[in-house]
Amino acid sequence: GWCPLSPTGAQTTQLLVEPPWMPAVLWERVTLTCQGLGATSATTWYKDGQCWGQQGRDRLSVTRSGTYTCDRPGTGRSPPVTVLDDPLVLQVPARALLEGDTVTLRCRG
């Protein structure tokens, strides 16, 4: 597929992961949602750094492990979300964590 170039600058495109735990694991039926400026139809998805199908949709149901990012015109490329195919994973909440926060960890298998 053809991929537009992202403007450099502030990264304000967000890639939300559901369920909201990181790292995501394949067997949890992960859904990614791309949030940013510009039309949903202009969303570009990348998997492992390569331009990937599913263009023009803001939601993606993940069926393969890898590192995903999305791009929206106006706000650029999102930070990456990694989806693992591991049978056992230690997870943290998928939100910004600050020093001093109390954090719940999940061991899932």
UniProtKB/TrEMBL annotation:
<dbReference type="InterPro" id="IPR050488">
    <property type="entry name" value="Ig_Fc_receptor"/>
</dbReference>
<dbReference type="GO" id="GO:0009897">
    <property type="term" value="C:external side of plasma membrane"/>
</dbReference>
<dbReference type="InterPro" id="IPR013783">
    <property type="entry name" value="Ig-like_fold"/>
</dbReference>
<protein>
    <submittedName>
        <fullName>FCRL4 protein</fullName>
    </submittedName>
</protein>
<dbReference type="GO" id="GO:0006955">
    <property type="term" value="P:immune response"/>
</dbReference>
<dbReference type="GO" id="GO:0004888">
    <property type="term" value="F:transmembrane signaling receptor activity"/>
</dbReference>
<dbReference type="InterPro" id="IPR007110">
    <property type="entry name" value="Ig-like_dom"/>
</dbReference>
<dbReference type="Pfam" id="PF13895">
    <property type="entry name" value="Ig_2"/>
</dbReference>
<dbReference type="InterPro" id="IPR036179">
    <property type="entry name" value="Ig-like_dom_sf"/>
</dbReference>
<dbReference type="GO" id="GO:0007166">
    <property type="term" value="P:cell surface receptor signaling pathway"/>
</dbReference>
<keyword id="KW-1015">Disulfide bond</keyword>
<keyword id="KW-0732">Signal</keyword>
<feature type="domain" description="Ig-like">
    <location>
        <begin position="7"/>
        <end position="70"/>
    </location>
</feature>
